[in-house]
Amino acid sequence: MLVAFIVACEVAFWLLLGAGLAVRYLLRRKRLSTVLLVAVPLVDVVLLVASAINLRSGGTATFAHGLAAAYLGYSVAFGRSIMRWADQRFAHRFAGGPPPWRPPRYGAARTRYEWREWGKGMLAWAIACTLLLAGIAYIDDASRTHELLVWIGRLSLVMVIWLVFWPLAYTLFPKRDPAERR
Q: Which of 5, 38, 128, 150 could lock 73 by a disulfide, CB 3.0 to 4.6 Å apart?
């Protein structure tokens, strides 16, 4: 049931974001657009409350509870970036805006970009792990919260893999512009 709710929250996130941008650029209603876009993070609050209620009412933590915490952490850490990404593409396609920004492909600029994105990932990790630990403390029953502890390990492993294969890899082996190799 909670997995379906997480999916519904993800759909609501994108629908609110799309509606906010459509209202802003197609209907030119800035105030209504702002209301819709402010509602986007409220979806995360609803998911957090639903997950806490489920656990507090006697539910045992499942994969879905950990996924909810990870989703919330990701939404908070990357939410502005996602909204900016969508806004640039929508403005370009429907409102004659400039082409969307693209991340650098080579050199030190790419390395800085990878470290910045990994830093956002660490923020997402910290938020998710804080929520998971809060859930463990809130329920105070190790037999019902083991899956939340497992999720901390999963998220930590993801962050280590990300660190090794992106920021560290680009730092140690920077990708060079093919035009500069000649």
A: 128
**Domain with 76 in it:** 2-181
The mean of the pLDDT values for the chain is 94
Contacts of 159 (CB under 8 A, 6+ apart): 118, 121, 122, 125
Tens of pLDDT, residue by residue over 41-99, are 899 889 989 998 999 899 999 999 999 999 999 999 999 999 999 999 999 999 999 99
**CB-based contacts of 139, cutoff 8 Å, min separation 6:** 55, 56, 61, 145
Could you give the number of structural domains in the chain?
1
User: How much of the chain, in percent, has pLDDT values that exceed 90?
Assistant: 88
Residues 109-137 have pLDDT tens digits of: 999 999 999 999 999 999 999 999 999 99
pTM for this entry: 0.91
